[in-house]
Design goal:
The complex is a heterodimer of chains A (about 400) and B (about 150). Chain A is of the alpha+beta class. Chain A has helices at about 5, 50-55, 60-65, 75-90, 95-120, 125-145, 170-180, 180-195, 195-200, 210-215, 220-225, 230-235, 255-280, 330-335, 340-345, 350-360, 380-399; strands at about 10-15, 25-30, 35-40, 155, 160, 300-305, 310-320, 325-330, 370-375, 375-380. In chain A, the strands form four sheets. Chain A has a three-stranded antiparallel beta sheet with strand order 1-2-3. Chain A has a three-stranded antiparallel beta sheet with strand order 6-7-8. Chain A has a two-stranded antiparallel ribbon with strand order 4-5. In chain A, a hairpin with a 2-residue loop joins strand 2 and strand 3 (about 35-40). Chain A is globular. Chain B is an alpha/beta fold and about 150 residues long. Chain B has one domain: NADH:ubiquinone oxidoreductase Nqo5 subunit (Beta Polymerase, domain 2, 2-Layer Sandwich), CATH 3.30.460.80. In chain B, a hairpin with a 2-residue loop joins strand 1 (about 15-20) and strand 2. Classes of the chains: A alpha+beta (about 400), B alpha/beta (about 150). The interface of A and B includes residues 214, 237, 335 and 338 of A.
Chain lengths: ~400, ~150
């Protein structure tokens, strides 16, 4: 151990935080205010869903994987049914394709708004937090109208979707969805023009394209670093993403600011996808939403779907029985969180908070952090948050 | 296009080439060739490493390394068969950083050893989990779980 390494202080962040979804544990090794190394520990909430899945029949697994995450609760079933449909070679009706896209995009909207609010809170910009969550309610209302639930929609089924959307409700749903354009454009303007957000996020936590490729990051994290991948566009099988007009926003800076902008631009695209899909439903017969599936043959299949945080990957193997023989699940945060290893290095402690949160890591965990120096507690999570928020205040005054 | 390129790059290293449909390919290879093939697919052909799946097929172990070609919507899955008695494979985390965690995961859940991995330690299981008990193996029983 070198002399410098001996002088390092370890700041633990995590593993439990009651406000967020999953616990992770980040150990920041700092010298003074500068972050030198990051150790990541996961597994605090391991639920062995892959093993459980081997004991449930194919239809039950759809609803088991919905419980992996409360925020991207339709992405996992989406990828899972794609995997089984790939295994058995099933094609689904066109109406089901559109409904799958509608529910998937609604989820993206509410997930990105949730993240935007939290990001605002982390940098001490609480107005943004309250705005974002206010408009998130509209999205949740639409979800409730379609599926009966604000979350956990239980819409996916092997061979189609479980619930139809009534044609008579389409006008109302389109109107509600389009009402989001105003607030989203406001967020776009606020994020791009606001000097405080700019000062706190531009050039912070940069993930270079080279690192992004090596760490195989996904979703907005990859698209903010100049990698043009989106599983919705690249792999539209059994969904309607190739039937509607939309774009994939890609930025090249790789910093937190780019990640904010990518997500805001994506939300505007989501609104486009939802309104077009709803509009197309009018010409398709109500009720034609499922292909009957009787047996799942032996074989293997891969399914992917672009969740709000990146590509969800499911691999299903069947040996001809009524349960999966093996079911491998890979969530996007599994790849994205590891990339923090390089993104926080060289930044200061006050920025670590927003950098770690920038990959939208189904974050969590941030509550139990304490920095002990000479036997005394130096920072805990509250103080770290205060530190971050004070930095914003300081910048505000300077500007 | 990419199908031809992969076939050419792998050449005689292919043990079995299985095309399930236009979008999915399963390629069986020998474990001695794994590192070289991973380099070819990841560095030269610029495929994205999606993840690896370890499977206990009861009479042997399998690892599938899923590589994705996003431009053409295709998955190339390398299939590795491992001996049940001494499951061992070369680590590719030196070539692909993103493989670090999944190799640790397969090591602890299936008991597959990865030769050359920089830090094979627990990723998901608790610290008091008994050594040598691999919960994703098919012969795992509930009695093997540590008592709460």
């Amino acid at each position: 151990m070198s002399k410098d390494q001996k002088r390092r202080t370890i700041i633990p962040i995590g593993p439990y935080h009651p406000l967020q979804e999953e616990p992770e544990f980040f150990e920041l090794e700092v010298e003074g205010e500068t972050v030198k190394k990051l150790n990541i520990h996961i597994g605090y909430n391991h639920r062995s869903i892959e093993k459980l899945s081997e004991s449930k029949h194919f239809d039950q697994v759809t609803f088991l994987v919905e419980r992996i995450c409360g925020i991207c609760s339709t992405s996992h079933p989406f990828a899972y049914v794609q995997a089984v449909e790939d295994l058995a070679g099933i094609e689904i009706p066109e109406r089901a394709k559109y409904i799958r896209c509608i529910i998937g995009e609604l989820e993206r909207l509410h997930s990105h708004l949730l993240w935007l609010g939290l990001a605002g809170h982390f940098i001490g910009y609480n107005t943004l937090w309250m705005w974002a969550w206010k408009y998130r309610e509209i999205v949740l209302d639409i979800c409730e109208q379609i599926s009966g639930n604000r979350n956990h929609y239980a819409m996916m089924i092997i061979g189609g979707v479980r619930r139809d959307i009534f044609n008579k409700e389409i006008d109302e749903l389109i109107k509600k969805t389009e009402s989001l354009n105003g607030p989203l454009n406001m967020f776009k303007g606020a994020a791009i023009d606001d000097p405080v957000i700019g000062a706190r996020t531009r050039g912070v936590g940069i993930l270079t394209k080279e690192n992004a490729i090596n760490y195989c990051v996904l979703g907005p994290t990859a698209r903010a670093s100049g990698i043009d991948i989106d599983s919705r566009r690249d792999s539209p099988h059994n969904s309607a993403y190739d039937l509607v007009e939309w774009n994939v926003p890609v930025l090249t800076d790789g910093d937190v600011f780019a990640k904010v902008v990518v997500r805001i631009l994506e939300m505007l695209e989501s609104v486009k996808i939802i309104t077009q899909s709803l509009d197309r439903l009018r010409d398709l017969k109500e009720g034609d939403i499922q292909t009957e599936v009787r047996e799942i043959p032996a074989g293997e299949g891969i399914g992917t779907y672009e969740a709000p945080r990146g590509e969800v990957f499911h691999y299903v193997r069947s040996n001809g029985g009524n349960t999966p023989f093996r079911h491998k699940i890979r969530a996007p945060s599994y790849m994205n969180i590891l990339s923090n290893e390089v993104a926080v290095i060289g930044g200061d402690i006050a920025d670590a908070c927003i950098t770690l949160a920038a990959v939208d890591p189904c974050y969590c965990c941030t509550d139990r952090m304490q920095a002990v120096e000479g036997g005394k507690i130096k920072y805990d999570w509250k103080q770290l948050l205060k530190l971050s928020q004070e930095k914003t205040e300081k910048i505000k005054k300077e500007i | 296009m990419i199908e031809k390129k992969v076939k050419e790059a792998l050449g005689n290293k292919i043990v079995k080439w299985e095309k399930k449909n236009e979008r999915r390919y399963y390629i069986e290879i020998k474990k001695e060739d794994l590192e070289e093939i991973a380099k070819m697919l990841f560095n030269d052909l610029k495929l994205r490493f999606s993840i690896a799946s370890g499977v206990d097929t009861i009479d042997h172990f399998e690892i599938l390394y899923h590589f994705s070609c996003d431009e053409e919507d295709k998955f190339f899955s390398l299939r590795l068969r491992l001996d049940k008695k001494k499951p061992e494979a070369p680590s590719i985390s030196g070539i692909i950083t993103a493989a670090k965690w999944i190799e640790r995961e397969m090591w602890e859940l299936l008991g597959i050893n990865f030769v050359g991995h920089p830090g094979l330690k627990r990723l998901l299981l608790t610290d008091d989990w008994p050594k040598g008990v691999c919960p994703l193996r098919k012969d795992f029983t509930n009695e093997q779980r540590p008592k709460a």
